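Z., the sequence and structure:
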Amino acid sequence: MSSSFSTWFLKGINPGSVITLNQPFSSQWKILEKLNEHEFQVNKEENNDYGFCSFASAKFQCCDPKQRSKEAFMRIYIQVPHRKTEMDDANTRGQQATTFTPPELLAYQDLTQKHSINTPKLIGYKTDTQDRSGLVPGGFIIWLVWEIVPGRRLGDSNGAGPFWALESDERERVRTEFVKALPKLVENGWFPTVSGASSLVWHRDTETLYFVGRFSKTGKRKRPIEFAEWIATFELAKPVPPVRWGDDDWDKDTSRWECSTFQPWKVGNVYVICTKPNEMSTGRTIIPQSIGEDGIEPGAETREFLSFCPPEMQPSRRIIAQRGPNDWQDIASPENDSSTHQPSGESSTLIPDPTAALGFTGSIGRGYQNVVKGKARIYMDSFPGPDNTGANAVHSRLKQLLTGKKCHEEVLVYLNDNLDYRLAAMQLASRYVSFLELQFPDGLTFDTEAWCNDLALKAVNDDCSTDAQSKLEKYKQVRGYIMDTDLFGRPMVGQGFWYTKPTEYLAIALVESSSLSIDDICDTIDRLVRRKAHIH
């Protein structure tokens, strides 16, 4: 998304400039310093294929002109011309004018309205259109200002060095607050777009942990949060050996993870001591192995914590007590926390799918690009269909990524959301096939395009045209019925076009692996629709 223009913010936006916002009430902000600038400039073809608009954004540090000590961050989004149209006349450039609401603004609006205490508050914003002298006459220009939360950022582009520079006991307090703050953020419907220490700010004086940066909408949660995974994903622990969260055979043994001090995990007044799976603590018994045994009734905060725990992990892998920390420092080890399950949702969720081949890690940059690249490789090796169809327009970007081309942050996030949706939809299709006990290859290894092409060739062959034509017609009817039931749902905004392969794969599996009639197959699909919530 490069451009020959070194900056798009030349006119009227310099240190000392005062910007007036009008939402939710009038306020003025004086620009102190420009912190960064990014552009997302596409050509006309990319605009047509992806629906992308071209824009640039710049982040500034600013202050209240009447109260210099009241500082905040400001970001400005401005529509810019598509590549190779920068020198067109104003009327031509004005034809590109469109509307746009930055996801960042939506997130801060929602979190502020919900009184989130672990994210920055939106202070003000303004949406407007450019005049005739603008880069895109009639195009959008948006200002938003949010508070600077107090504290120390725990990561940067090089990783979680600031976090690991803290004393061990303070690192433990950060993890404790993380365990308390993450579920609140998810409950509010949002999750950091980049899962890493760079998304965390720690305020030592108040022991408050803030999530900062960009946020993505969460999907519907099927399971509670798996804290062990997310503590590691946000770089607050170092798994030994390294873990790929999509591996089904991970034994959830965190005993060798580098975490440091021997203290209990705490949620409210609840202290949690975790051991290796299927083993009990070698220290003192805190309460009976099964909570509630022998007349012991768990307290409200214990019940609250247990609400995060899946049944299969209670309580043989965890001991819980409402006691003070000093009693348990000799036996409680956060290094052994196998915690609870990570949130999961429909295939359209923007939270990393724990069943995907790879999950988020690190900050935007080196680590994040590698994660998206890993997903892209798995996807492109899964016979995703021809590149020249409109629904697969994303393939050109994925191939560029796989050849080592560096992508802008906005493109990486877009590609990651596309891949999460497509890989999850394909996995769902394979689960449907498994649920129906059809003897058929896994969806990621089956080439639906080759099957359709081979059948079409047979259909025009005089020797076997009748059988092939009959099968082809049956396949088309089944595929159409699956589409009508919306069995796989639709991608959310930002997740690209509807992915056709899951529907094609399930239809082929039903046609090839059963002798059922069309009516029987439709009844089977209806059964999947009824049981959809129970099998994915």
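Confidence is low (pLDDT under 50) at residues 1-5, 260-365. The longest strand covers residues 27-40.

Let me know what you think.
H.
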